[in-house]
Amino acid sequence: MVTIPTELIGSLSRSVELVEAQRTHKDGELTTDQLALLQEKDIRTVLFKLEQTGSLQLTDGELTKSSFLNYPIYELTQHNFSFDDENLTTITYADGHQRSLPKLIKAPFHYGTFAVDYLRTAQKYTKRPLKQAVIAPSALSFVYTNETIDYYSREQFLDDLIDEAEKDVPT
């Protein structure tokens, strides 16, 4: 039998239980700690199943990220960002679903969560090498729109963005 080495790239579907937990968390019916336990359960399951396939390099399937596009800023969206603008950067996928980036409304720009945080969680459940999706700074640069923020230039924003992006991929 001939084998063809493969490895998974990208997101995996969340379990029905996790989707429901995310909804109840958003509605205030589930604590963040309770949600984290369910997320880690799904990560353990995914990593175990991927190990069984013989994959040499694994991924957590982005199960706990809000979105690959906004994971660094998601937890800050209520305070530092706004979705109240018709000119938001929006990506439309082939299947019709969309992801939008909010507009930065409060300086300075910084990440709330780093990709390495997701990686460290997954590393608790496997000894195999792991991949973790990281958003490109060029994509996040769209949060600074043509409407400037007083005393916060686009150049300062870009400096802050690059500083944060460097922290997102520790060496």
Task: Please describe the topology of this protein.
Elements: H1 16-26, H2 32-52, E1 58-59, H3 77-80, E2 81-82, E3 90-92, E4 98-100, E5 103-104, H4 115-123, E6 130-131, H5 137-140, H6 154-168
Parallel strand pairs: 1-6
Antiparallel strand pairs: 2-5, 3-4
Q: Can you describe what's shown?
A:
By secondary structure, the protein is mainly alpha-helical. It has two domains: 44 residues; 104 residues, no CATH class. Helix content is 37%, strand content 8%. The chain has six helices and six strands, in the order H-H-E-H-E-E-E-E-H-E-H-H. Strands 1-6 form a two-stranded parallel ribbon. Strand 3 and strand 4 form a beta hairpin.
Q: Report the strand count.
A: 6
**What order do the strands of the largest sheet run in, or round the barrel if closed?**
1-6
The secondary-structure element order is HHEHEEEEHEHH
Overall shape: it is globular
CA radius of gyration: 18 Å
* Whole-number mean pLDDT: 91
Structural class: mainly alpha
Largest sheet: 2 strands, parallel
The amount of beta strand, in percent, is 5-15%
Count of separate DSSP helical elements = 6
Straight-line distance between termini: 39 Å
Number of domains: 2
Helix content: 25-40%
